[in-house]
């Protein structure tokens, strides 16, 4: 290009920039910002923030449009509150597999960590105990749980889909798969479950104890312990045996039972008509004093109403469907997240939030609290039971609207 042409090119570029600035200013002046917003929003469904330039994981962006800034009400810096089990490393073992969601994966979850665990038929999650409590929910197959307390009372029980168990911290226990394939959710009342000194396996202990001490302790020959595995296998293959257990101190039952059978408990009433829920806390499962839960099914387009939990963080596991939620953490800070089956999440202590079913099938999830009770405060009920003139003045809404708010918790609001 001739040198003489360069000033002219620069002038043309300056004029183009000037024209673009003037057009933008004119659109703003005449209310044209809506046109700009439409252009910005137009790419969310195809996984594009604004113009879509730059590196991106297109498949993830399609699944998580709210991370692209789709919700205009989102504001401020809110930490990540979501982790997918699919992002966790899966440990493949002889007889099953396991993958976790712990505080190193989801740093905002201080109270709760969890795992998905899978056992083939007969395989055993070996004998062990924890310095934290363990809560479990069966969602595929059937398992045998076995545990012994400090008084020598024991429990052996078959659990099927929907059934739950709870082992207090320090209680000795094990789990065995009974069907061809068995899977369950494990929950622990400590976010840092992988810390040293959290789990203690019996074969690990025995293999690190002098054999003459073992012989003296058990009253057996030292040779018995030559085949104890080291390192411990965590999950091991086995066959199902039908031997029954007896003991001088009897079985655990009633309020001391470690198991909750779903068939023995009716579902909760849901005034909003948008689905079903089951509350499993110390009211219905007395032994479970540090973990409370709610198992929720929300119909398509339904809404878990705006609420907060006054007594704990809320940890979530999504088992089926697609969800959207916005969490409000105070100081004008809010962020929206999209969830699918296999995702976990956490709502900070006392943060306001909702959950919406945005899919075509029922949305199923489990809410977990480090507490003896599942508690929530409904935003609508709070406003309805506050003097209507105060609500109307604060929110700048008509008085008759404030007077008409529903005074009964809706919990799961039916979609339309």
TrEMBL record:
SUPFAM superfamilies: RmlC-like cupins
Statement: the UniProt record of this protein carries the keyword GTP-binding: no
Pfam families associated with the record: Cupin_1
Record-listed Mn(2+) 1 binding positions: 128, 130, 134, 173
TM stretches of this protein: 15-38
Domain of life of the source: Eukaryota
Keyword Membrane (UniProt): yes
Binding-site residues, Mn(2+) 2: 307, 309, 314, 353
Cofactor note: Binds 2 manganese ions per subunit.
Record-level GO BP terms: oxalate metabolic process
CDD domains, alphabetized: cupin_OxDC_C
GO terms for MF: metal ion binding
SMART domains (alphabetical): Cupin_1 (SM00835)
Cofactors (names): Mn(2+)
Active site annotation, chain numbering: 367 (proton donor)
Keywords: Manganese, Membrane, Metal-binding, Transmembrane, Transmembrane helix
Region spans: Disordered: 47-73
Domain Cupin type-1 span(s) in chain numbering: 83-226, 265-403
PANTHER family, alphabetized: OXALATE-BINDING PROTEIN, SLL1358 PROTEIN
Name listed for the protein in its UniProt record: RmlC-like cupin domain-containing protein
Organism in which the protein naturally occurs: Pseudomassariella vexata
